[in-house]
Amino acid sequence: MVHSTGTAGITQLIGNTPLLRIRMFEREFPRLEVYAKAEWFNPGGSVKDRAALSMIEEGERRGALTHDKTIIDSTSGNTGIAYAMVAAAKGYRVKLVMPANVSAERKALISAYGADIVYSDAGEGSDGAIRFVRDLVAADPNSYFYPDQYSNPANARAHYEGTAVEILQQTAGRVTHFIAGLGTTGTFVGTSRRLKEHDPSIRTIAVQPEDSFHGLEGLKHIPTAIIPKIWDPTLADEIWGCPTEPAYDLARAAARTEGLLVGHSSGAALWAVRRLAGTIDEGVVVTVFPDSGDRYLSTGLYGRK
Ligand SMILES: Cc1ncc(COP(=O)(O)O)c(C=O)c1O
């Protein structure tokens, strides 16, 4: 909540992101309304600000997080930036384990907030980072606060209490379909749970990469990954596997036709919107654009064509 004087701490600016109208499928599917939560409007630049703040504040409430502890977790990047920002604002130290091949922009951002980075084997991906952090915590459990974003219900709760409530307000309850990518699964699980409690007829579609070798940073191929404890497949009416190149094409199209510079996983969300559009006559489809394309400029997302 922004104070009436107009001043606010940075963590108070997390959430309440705009819901954007997406028009790129309108000509082909005129009876479909498509919207996306612009999550790069969060102060740390991604949807993960919500989860990081929720897990850190839950740790404070439980007394598990105190100022003599270092916050530690594994992250493919965005959660790390979010932890680093929230921890800096609250005066905590942070250590992050991430695969060595995450983008240069992400490493630079995390270092800029003063967090330490430990690199895990690039070839082992985000699961290698998870195993690495578990070993570090097991070796010295009293030094760390380990939120464990894959297992922490406060991750999904950020979306149950925030993202979903905002979507219901911003669509005046008209949402008929919800689409989100799966990483830790927090966004999909928390938002879908609340939407279905509100109206069980709302259809939910989870999007994962088509296979384990993919270029969709932030997303996980669940069948071949360490399955997040917070994952609840009963909340998904459909789970679709998205190919990498069509997702990149749609991310590029969003930049050029909508003025929306979004990341890989937003391209995957658009791929699922497009697929859904071919199967329904009308509806109010809401998805999530987790971060901005400026995080991926060095990866060639926008430079290939
Ligand atoms: C770019 C990007 N997209 C999507 C996701 C998936 O979000 P969640 O972890 O809530 O499933 C993440 C999370 O790490 C991400 O960084």
Describe this structure in words.
The chain is 37% helix and 18% strand. With 305 residues, the protein is an alpha/beta fold. The protein folds into 2 domains: 10-46 and 154-299, Rossmann fold (3-Layer(aba) Sandwich), CATH 3.40.50; 48-145, Rossmann fold. The strands form 2 sheets. Strands 1-2-10-7-8-9 form a 6-stranded mixed beta sheet. It has a 4-stranded parallel beta sheet with strand order 5-4-3-6. Helix 1 (48-62) crosses helix 2. The protein starts with 18 loop residues before the first strand and ends in a 16-residue tail after the last strand. The model has no long low-confidence stretch (mean pLDDT 94). Bound molecules: pyridoxal-5'-phosphate. Residues 46-48, 76, 78-79, 181-188, 217-219, 263, 265, 290-291 line the site of pyridoxal-5'-phosphate.
What's the layout of helices and strands?
Layout: E1 19-22, E2 32-38, H1 48-62, E3 70-74, H2 78-90, E4 93-99, H3 104-112, E5 116-120, H4 125-139, E6 144-145, H5 153-170, E7 177-181, H6 186-198, E8 203-209, E9 238-242, H7 244-258, H8 264-277, E10 283-289
Parallel strand pairs: 2-10, 3-4, 3-6, 4-5, 7-8, 7-10, 8-9
Antiparallel strand pairs: 1-2
The chain binds pyridoxal-5'-phosphate.
The site of pyridoxal-5'-phosphate has 21 residues, from helix 2 and helix 6.
